[in-house]
């Protein structure tokens, strides 16, 4: 019987196996429906907006990503409401499915926000959605990928 190896030796063995097998896999083209659970072999970047109009995919606060916190909460919007306008330095509470206010370009998720005395604090944003090489494809991602005609 072989004597047990140390944790460090086991981790080195795993790294060697990954270098030998994992990173030398070839890519293949499969249908979008057959891609669930696979990894991308190259980046996919959306070339168009989907849907054509901007709606909130989550409850949170509509903001202008270039504004700095704190932002004044100036109102709220729900699915079915008319489009409202957001001004510099403002945030608008938004419900899932509501049209994004004119001037807003991001939604701060409710769980990433903090409200103190009608002022909103949160994290900064970056624009664009990129699916990166080695990202695992989920069922949710397929809907998005289908919309951008991958």
Quickly count the helices: 2
Query: Runs with pLDDT <50, length 5+?
Result: none
**What is the 3D form?**
elongated
Instruction: Encode the helix/strand succession as letters.
Output: HEEEEEEEEH
Major sheet details = 6 strands, mixed
Explain this structure:
With 150 residues, the protein is α+β, with helices and mostly antiparallel strands. It has two helices and eight strands. The strands form two sheets. Strands 5-2-4-3-7-6 form a six-stranded mixed beta sheet, with no helix packed on it. A hairpin with a 2-residue loop joins β6 and β7. The longest helix has 14 residues.
What is shown here, in short?
This protein is of the alpha+beta class and 150 residues long.
Feature tags:
single chain; 150 residues; alpha+beta; 6-stranded mixed β-sheet; two-stranded antiparallel ribbon; 2 helices
Write the layout of secondary structure elements.
Elements: H1 7-20, E1 44-45, E2 60-63, E3 71-77, E4 90-94, E5 106-109, E6 114-116, E7 119-121, E8 130-131, H2 139-147
